[in-house]
């Protein structure tokens, strides 16, 4: 039954309207049932989980379980928890002035019980919107039982002239104050074991104990915990009895394909409209950016147990556009297109997001980032141009012979400068006849505005396959024949 919250201000009116007490888990369950029956999207804006995480999460909600979302960083665990708010009723009534959101028909606190006893049907009612029914706490080593459960408040005792034996001196912690709400504890393993123990009875029996006060408060909460598997070995673990009391543990994961990863990046990127209007990003550049994260997750230099967050691509995309924007501003241009050489600006976003193993530390973070970009180019290359075999027969003809021959004849090398205007950049790439021919031959229907990025990809691809050499200098990149410089120096 949907009640008009604007017309109900007192307990008597609430009873007359036919309001019935409902637990938060039943709210979530009932509203989820309706959404599923009506074919509505339950967790909007979360991509890649449609056939894995979301069905498991829906099953857990239908089972009225407390939930633990277990996954590496950047896998939308907290976002999923926050989206559960949309499954709550829009408004619920509470006893006005209650610290713990007392249900008017099922009061728990001394304050609410005494107020209803005194005023009866004239007890004032206020309404709580679902957007205010989400509490979140990051588990850190300094979290105390008093923070979560509560403690005796000496100031309250002094002001009210009460002894410490009176339960009115209690100051409730975050969990009682989140009664009838979704309560999220992020990074649960980081919570000290003795603090985790304090959650046992709340999860199972609803009892809480504060400084010797045994209060029978049947708290009505939907707990959602998040945890990172890395924490189990690095910082702590979830104590076994607590795990036993959590109904469902759901494993999250990274996107399985580039298309899904692109949706996430484009949705989450924080771009200035002037930036997105001024900078054109070719589709192939977006694919390449996502491929970097895929390469990092499989790299021998990166700690796989730590994971590579989706934020790597998100911040990388922002840096990529900023690199192109800055170049356009320096040139006095109103617009520009992303170039492959702009990926140099993505390196700071990569180095800040990946954890390196020993071999990676030896290489250095910047060098590893460059390796990942080159590996991403190498992975995408066969989708656009003929595959280059690792082992080739001596004197065997390849589709790249004429292009490599052109570079062999250019003893001074071929330079692409960072500050080239768009016209200079295009004119320089157009100056290589074989580059133009191969782009037209192997990608005849490629979008015209993207073709210059494709040409750059061809050059970088030949470098990653050790057919050309690439040298970074302060003003740009130089491409040369791999052996020509040695021969000419003899």
Question: Can you walk me through this structure?
Answer:
The protein has 490 residues and is α/β, with parallel strands linked by helices. 43% of the residues lie in helices and 14% in strands. It is built from 24 helices and 16 strands. It has helices at 11-16, 24-37, 53-62, 77-83, 110-119, 145-148, 154-160, 174-177, 193-197, 200-204, 231-234, 240-245, 258-268, 273-278, 283-297, 311-331, 347-351, 358-363, 365-380, 401-409, 422-430, 433-442, 451-464, 484-488, and strands at 67-70, 91-95, 125-129, 134-138, 150-152, 170-172, 182-186, 207-210, 213-216, 222-227, 248-251, 279-280, 336-337, 414-417, 468-473, 476-481. A five-stranded parallel beta sheet has the order 4-7-10-1-11, covered by helices on one side. A three-stranded antiparallel beta sheet has the order 14-16-15. The longest helix is centred in the middle third of the chain and has 21 residues, at 311-331. It starts with 10 loop residues before the first helix and ends with a helix.
Concise overview:
With 490 residues, the chain is an alpha/beta fold. The chain contains 24 helices and 16 strands.
Oligomer: single chain
Quick check: average pLDDT?
89
Number of strands: 16
Tell me the strand order in the biggest sheet. 4-7-10-1-11
Largest sheet: 5 strands, parallel
What radius of gyration results from the CA coordinates?
A: 30 Å
Provide the low-confidence segments as ranges: 486-490
What does the overall shape look like? elongated
DSSP helical segment count: 24
Helix amount: 40-55%
Structural class determined from secondary elements? alpha/beta
Distance between the amino and carboxyl termini: 90 Å
Strand content: 5-15%
